[in-house]
Amino acid sequence: MQEELNNFARNEVWVLEERPKNKNIIGTKWVFRNKQDEHGVVVRNKARLVAKGFAQVEGLDFGETFAPVARLEAIRILLAYSSHHKIKLYQMDVKSAFLNGFINELVYVDRPPGFEDPRKPNHVYRLHKALYGLKQAPRAWYERLRDFLIMQGFKIGKVDMTLVHQRRQWGSLHLSNLC
Question: Going residue by residue through the chain (179 aa), what tens digit of pLDDT does each one get?
Fold first, then answer.
């Protein structure tokens, strides 16, 4: 649990403030999971703090919730194209991905269970970034990733916005790197 809260501090996810009047305060809860190796042996215990997104009020705590999802057809095209052109594909995993997405709405969450401070009983966290469980978290993460890729020279697909590509020229050969 402490490692998760350290991620929050490092990513500047929230700031502690006095509980505002007439604002919806969203609860939080811990979700625990055991990571296992290929033999089923527990190698790591994980704790993730999630927001109780079901308590969010549309128009107050969030606007749009849309987040693009890769279509199976796009994945097939990507694999066929890269195989035909002998392009090496890489996969990456972003640890605590949602903690990188900025949110535009004013959202407050309760302190994590077990980490309340008796010296500041009327304080809650105002979020700067998304938490797992928030309705806008997937969209916030996608927008942050998309903006970064565009800054790196990638182009967003016209037919499928989850297909991102970058054209590079080496001599007279043109290769497309696809994400």
Answer: 998 899 888 889 999 999 999 889 999 999 999 988 888 888 888 889 999 988 887 877 777 777 778 888 888 888 998 899 988 887 777 777 888 889 988 999 999 988 988 899 899 999 999 999 998 988 888 889 889 989 988 888 887 888 787 876 554 444 444 44
Cα dist from 161 to 139, 158, 164, 165, whole Å:
13, 6, 7, 10
Please tell me the distance from the alpha carbon of residue 171 to that of residue 75, in angstroms, as a whole number: 29
| CA proximity to 30, closest of 105, 90, 111 | 111
Q: Pseudo-torsion of CA 55, 126, 11, 137, nearest 10°?
A: 30
Q: Which residues contact 67 (CB under 8 A, 6 or more apart)?
A: 138, 139, 141, 142
pTM comes to: 0.75
| Residue 102, beta-bridge partner list | 129
List Cβ neighbours of 123 (8 Å cut-off, separation of 6 or more). Answer: 16, 17, 18, 19, 111, 117
**Both tokens assigned to 120:** 């500041």
Query: Up-side HSE of residue 50: CA atoms within 13 Å toward CB?
Result: 15
Q: What is the gyration radius of the CA atoms in the chain, in angstroms?
A: 20
